[in-house]
Amino acid sequence: MSEGSTASGPSVFGSQGNRLRLEDCPNCGCRLICIRSKQPETFNQMFFKCPNNVRGDPNTCEWIRSERQYETYLCVLDARKQQCGDLQVIGDARMQALCELKD
Ligand SMILES: [Zn+2]
């Protein structure tokens, strides 16, 4: 893949108006898709998932993240690509989330 340019790849706007770029599934390499939940308990929340993920079918790719998890995932990706200075701005809570996500 191309190295961390800020190119205007495919992206969506999160609930806070923040821009979230669509990465590739780490399992399949397919471009992730953004969906809105129709389940009552998470109604209208955004989720990011692999297009190969079929709900209720364990044989399909299991990769799915809530909006917040996905935001963190993007930060982790950035941090891996380069020492991302933005992480300092994001604050302690987010850093903690990063640590939890790492293993
Ligand atoms: Zn996948």
Describe the model:
This is Zinc finger GRF-type domain-containing protein. It comes from Panicum virgatum. The structure is a single chain. With 103 residues, the chain is of the alpha+beta class. The protein has one domain. It is built from three helices and five strands; from the N terminus they run βββββααα. The two termini are 24 Å apart. It binds zinc ion.
Main beta sheet: strand number and arrangement? 3 strands, antiparallel
User: If strands are numbered along the chain, what order do they take across the biggest sheet?
Assistant: 3-4-5
Structural class: alpha+beta
- How far the N terminus sits from the C terminus, by CA atoms, comes to 24 Å
Strand fraction equals 15-25%
Query: What is the overall shape?
Result: globular
Integer-rounded radius of gyration: 14 Å
Strand element count: 5
What binds here, in terms of ligands, is: zinc ion
The number of distinct helices, counting runs of at least 4 residues, comes to 3
Helix content: 25-40%
Mean pLDDT: 82
* Low-pLDDT stretches: 1-5, 88-92
Region (Disordered): 1-20
Protein name: Zinc finger GRF-type domain-containing protein
Organism: Panicum virgatum (Blackwell switchgrass)
Biased composition (Polar residues): 1-18
Jot down its keywords:
binds zinc ion, 103 residues, 3 helices, two-stranded antiparallel sheet, 17% strand, alpha+beta, three-stranded antiparallel β-sheet, single chain
Topology (SSEs and partners):
Elements lengths: L10 E3 L5 E3 L11 E4 L9 E4 L14 E3 H15 L4 H5 L1 H11 L1
Antiparallel strand pairs: 1-2, 3-4, 4-5
Helix pairs in contact: 1-3
The structure holds zinc ion.
